[in-house]
Amino acid sequence: MLANIIKARKEAALSQKELASLVGLTQPDISKIERFERRLDVVEFIDMLTQISKRLNRDLSYIWQELYEHQCKQ
């Protein structure tokens, strides 16, 4: 699931620093989350998805659908 978020962040051309600023975290926080060194709580998860979907000009349901499909394949 996190791999999909990282992929979407990169597709949205958001740096870790930019995403961190948008969701009220630091760049090191985003880095640790992406390296599985820090847990991501539900609120942070939703904030990240919301900001990424805004940058991609896509409905949030698009990203949820991708995450759901990825989980179903496992």
Would you spell out the secondary-structure blueprint of this structure?
Layout: H1 2-11, H2 16-23, H3 27-34, H4 42-55, H5 60-73
Helix pairs in contact: 2-3, 4-5
Description:
The chain has helices at residues 2-11, 16-23, 27-34, 42-55, 60-73. With 74 residues, it is mainly α. It has a single domain (2-73), classed as 434 Repressor (Amino-terminal Domain) (Orthogonal Bundle). The longest helix is centred in the middle third of the chain and has 14 residues, at 42-55. It is globular. The N and C termini lie close together (10 Å). The mean pLDDT is 90.
Indicate how many domains the architecture comprises: 1
Main sheet overview: none
User: How much is the radius of gyration in Å?
Assistant: 12 Å
Mean of pLDDT: 90
| Total E-strand runs | 0
Distance from N terminus to C terminus (CA atoms, Å) equals 10 Å
Which percent range fits the helix content? over 70%
Report the top-level CATH class: Mainly Alpha
Percent of residues in beta strands: under 5%
Reported CATH architecture: Orthogonal Bundle
